[in-house]
Specification:
By secondary structure, the protein is of the alpha/beta class. The protein has 8 helices and 5 strands. It has a single domain, classed as 3-Layer(aba) Sandwich (Rossmann fold).
Length: 219
């Protein structure tokens, strides 16, 4: 059986990843394909516990190295439990964030550098790379504003505040933004950059073009 296809979505929170993942999954389903969806951090029982530590606004003074290694612990579990088994049976796996996020947020935002992140990726992930990465970079200020509004709304509805990163200063997110551009420039064959304040439909159209150029999709 041929190996499945591994697709990742990247970008700042508030860039529309969640909406576009749902749209792509629905589009694939109408064509008889049943993608496996997961998010990072999270997606497994162990990963969800790690997510609580990493994203909860009450998690204070988490050292950047601790943060990075927890991200990779979550990723290792997801690879072992979900990603590799699904790919082995020919599934399409769609993951909300992968190592590019760690390189952008911890390597760039926390200023740990790309070298350390990529070496950990080699060791922990066995070099597993997405077949296609869709990097959504809507307008910088608009993305941050949407992410912060969403966190306030979710906290009001559920009592859960996953806004630890959104409490960072804009300079942190500018470093993340710049690192994402660096990754896209370094790996243009894998990373499709969809940039600017486009409509939801315009973004989806570019995503479908990117996916169909790499995956044989039934009509």
């Amino acid at each position: 059986m041929p190996r499945g296809v591994f697709i990742t979505f990247e970008g700042l929170d508030g860039s529309g990843k969640t909406t576009q993942i749902k749209r792509l999954a629905a589009w694939l389903t109408t064509r008889g394909l049943q993608p496996v969806l997961l998010r990072q951090p999270g997606g497994t029982a162990t990963g969800d516990r790690i997510r609580e530590i990493l994203l909860d606004a009450r998690s204070h003074a988490v050292d950047p190295i601790t943060e990075m290694t927890l991200m990779f612990a979550d990723r290792a579990q997801a690879i072992a439990e979900i990603i590799r088994p699904a790919l082995a049976v020919g599934k399409i796996v769609i993951c909300d964030r992968f190592t590019d996020s760690t390189e952008a947020y911890q390597g760039g935002g926390r200023e740990l550098g790309s070298k350390t992140v990529l070496e950990l990726h080699r060791i922990v992930c066995g070099g597993l790379q997405p077949d296609l990465t869709l990097l959504l970079l809507a307008g910088f200020e608009a993305s941050l504003a949407r992410a912060r509004r969403r966190n306030h709304r979710v906290e009001a509805e559920t009592g859960t505040n996953e806004g630890r990163f959104e409490s960072e200063q804009d300079a942190f997110f500018r470093r993340v933004w710049n690192k994402y551009h660096e990754i896209a420039a370094r790996e243009p064959a894998r990373v499709i950059l969809i940039e600017g304040d486009l409509s939801i439909d315009q973004v989806q159209e570019q995503i479908i073009q990117a996916v169909t150029s790499r995956i044989p999709i039934p009509a």
